[in-house]
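Morning!

This is the sequence you dropped in the shared folder:
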Amino acid sequence: MITVTDLRKVYRQGEREVIALDGVTLSVPTGSIHGIIGHSGAGKSTLVRCLTLLDRPTSGTVAIGDKELSSVSDAELLNARRSIGMVFQHANLFDSRTTFQNVAFPLELTGTPKAAIAVKVNDLLNLVGLGAFADAYPAQLSGGQKQRVGIARALATDPDVLLCDEPTSALDPKTTDEILDLVKDLRDRLGITVLVITHEMDVVKRICNSVSLLEAGRIVEHGALAEVVARPGGRLSAALLPLPGIMPEELPAGLVLDLLYSGDQAAAPVISDITRRFDVDVNVLAGSVESLGGAQFAHLRILLPVGSDVPAIKAHLSANGIAVTSKEA
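The structure's back. Tokens below.
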């Protein structure tokens, strides 16, 4: 549904060039939720502006379905943008308009008849759980309710893609979970494709099917959630299944192993199996178990004492689908 090919954006500051996007290529299938994650300055905001053609790319293409947005004329741009609904960090509602009137605004711009607007807006408000708040003004709404209004407004033109730019950064944890559940539910009900721009890994964990790591204008890691988590040593894997980076101060001599595994193995008694099979005491230093991308994953850090049959233990773990990395304690 979303296809970005070799996207570059270069800004000029006098004689100096600033490369904000440097060859971004990305494909997001219809009906999926894809996360773009990166720190401040990674190029996330520029990517949003280029995807919506608020900034035209220096080179490369942006396509929604079979429509290449980057090649449309300025006169056609308004119609082209209707295929993308935008949800921002702040809902940016009109304070002087009611909830109903805020959601109706995009339809008014397109000349939709009033009767059709009334039906559409009421349906959307019911869809996002605000049917009883049609006459409320933004000052009377909570932060989560305002964001729901923003989501309803983004859906008013029946877009193919919902682009969410830091949609939960200004919300408390409970409201964040509610908004993310709503986004996932809308994807399931409407079949829309969702692109989430965020710096919060918890957002990716909760709703995304796939993820890209953006850094200095480039995508440096990319893939389905289950695939990136299963890559030992990968930065997304470490971020999605983190372990403490500092070892205990007084650690016995031995070998530290990091174990990464998934599926049925994630629920298997791996430690007790090693202990019995190799007659060795295993010290568990840290661990993390989570369900990500529809699969269960486990990440453990263990200590094997001096004298352990390390080659045999590693071979046994690898034979059972467990990725192993090691270092001296």
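Headline: The first helix runs from residue 44 to 51.

More detail when I'm at my desk.
O.
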